[in-house]
Amino acid sequence: MRSTSKPGWFLDPWQPAQLRWWAGTEWTSDTAPLGSPPSAPDGAVPRHQQPSWWAFGVALLLVVLLGVHAWRMPSTGADSLTAPALASRGSDPQTIPGRTFAKRVVVPRLESRQLRPARTAMRERGIELVVVQRLPSPEEKGSILAQRTEPGTRVDPGTVVHVVVAAPSQP
């Protein structure tokens, strides 16, 4: 006997050159030649046509989960507007109840400042300072000679400001 309990066509245990129908509990007298499996014998339901109750259960579970997720999502009312949209309407995006927006910060003038204290001050504002070039200069080593973002520009925290820094002059 086969260990499976599902009905279907299988190799005949007595004549391996043919197929025999397994009814789920016993072998029947229905046989067929090897090749593509024939249709099920009269009154039998082949394995591939049986209802897939587990598939129905999975589909039902997905519908329930999606419903719960949709129910928990915030409404699409005024609280879903973005900060730029509110700013264009004249509203202050910092004051929306239940929402927190990062405040934009002003890039200070960095020229003539030393790199280390300038980098520390910029990090406190949430701005990253990156040296893109070191030029020989009569200025003190580490002095910022130029900055890419104009002083006074409002930027988002996390913005990178590129600077050029003085290196010792070559004799």
Topology at a glance:
Elements: E1 8-11, E2 18-22, E3 27-33, H1 53-72, H2 83-88, E4 105-106, H3 115-125, E5 128-136, E6 144-147, E7 154-155, E8 160-167
Parallel strand pairs: 5-8
Antiparallel strand pairs: 1-2, 2-3, 4-7, 6-8
Question: What this model shows, in words?
Answer:
- By secondary structure, the chain is an alpha+beta fold.
- The chain folds into 2 domains: 1-70, no CATH class; 105-167, Trypsin Inhibitor V, Chain A.
- Helix content is 22%, strand content 24%.
- The chain contains 3 helices and 8 strands.
- The protein has helices at residues 53-72, 83-88, 115-125; strands spanning 8-11, 18-22, 27-33, 105-106, 128-136, 144-147, 154-155, 160-167.
- The strands form 3 sheets. It has a 3-stranded antiparallel β-sheet with strand order 1-2-3, with no helix packed on it.
- A hairpin with a 4-residue loop joins strand 2 and strand 3 (27-33).
Question: What is the tally of helical segments?
Answer: 3
Give the rounded overall mean pLDDT: 76
The fraction of residues in strands falls at: 15-25%
What is the 3D form? Answer: elongated
State the helical fraction. 10-25%
Number of domains: 2
Largest sheet, strands/sense/barrel = 3 strands, antiparallel
Poorly predicted segments = 76-83, 85-94
Number of strands: 8
Order of helices and strands: EEEHHEHEEEE
